[in-house]
Amino acid sequence: MIRAHDVSLSFSGNRVLDRVDIELDQGVLTALIGPNGAGKSTLFSVLAGDQRPDTGTVLLGERPVGSFSAKELARLRAVLPQDHTVRFSYSVEEIVSLARLSYAPDPILDEQIVTRSIEDVEMAHMRRRDVQTLSGGESGRAAFARVLAQTTPIILLDEPTSALDLRHQEAVLRRARRLARKGACVIVVLHDLNLAAAYADRIVLMDQGRIVADGAPREVLTVVHIEAVYGQPVLVTDHPTRACPLIVATDDVGATEDVGVSGDCVVADDIGATDDVGAAV
């Protein structure tokens, strides 16, 4: 679905992406992880078509990402940037409705999709609220609802959990994973390694503009990889209730071994969790 080959990019003489090669497929939730300044968000922007690399190519399907019009891109990929601040007085409903502008007007369908997307993020009671009056977490959920309402086959989320409380962090990533299960290509930038372990099918670990590890959570989230890239002693063990790694930071430099990590990462959803009704992929 998305292929980047030999992509490099520099800012003010500093190379932030260094000959990156990556392919991202439908039906997979891929988490981009790494320390601050690793190049995650820059690669994210290049994959989204928002930043042009100095060298290399990025293809969406068989076409260069730069060959698409803005409207064509809006029908192919939905993007949640780190900064989703709205500086004008729109309601939550109006912000989410912007996701439908790239499609031919269909008032009934558009209203259904917008309503369901707002309900999906538990903001039905806030749909008339001015977005400038929302908290950081509420604003993030409204922005995620806009992504859902765009109903695209490619979804890019840059740190979607950064301002959210625990329950809504889980809810957003559970929703993102379900979109992948329905066939979407989902790319998520995350700082929380345990959230990446719990929800990603594939993890791409970056450092200094390069991909240093790429694979299933248990293949990437090892003591060797984490300590080499983050410079932080950790213990990697099994999550007590989820079949995925659990990473614990430690001050004990000697506690550098993987303990009982096995199996693919699977998270059991709450029985009451609802399916995606606001996104068609």
Write structural notes for this entry:
With 281 residues, the protein is α/β, with parallel strands linked by helices. It has one domain (2-217): Rossmann fold (3-Layer(aba) Sandwich), CATH 3.40.50.300. The protein is 30% helix and 25% strand. It has helices at residues 40-48, 70-76, 92-97, 107-120, 136-149, 166-181, 193-199, 217-220, 223-230, and strands at 2-11, 14-24, 28-33, 55-60, 63-64, 77-80, 154-158, 185-189, 202-207, 210-215, 234-238, 245-249. A 6-stranded mixed beta sheet has the order 6-7-8-3-9-10, with helices on both faces. Strands 2-1-4-5 form a 4-stranded antiparallel beta sheet, covered by helices on one side. Helix 4 packs antiparallel against helix 5 (136-149). The protein starts with a strand and ends in a 32-residue tail after the last strand. It holds the Pfam family ABC_tran. Keywords: ATP-binding, Nucleotide-binding, Translocase, Transport. This is Hemin ABC transporter ATP-binding protein. GO terms for molecular function: ATP binding; ATP hydrolysis activity.
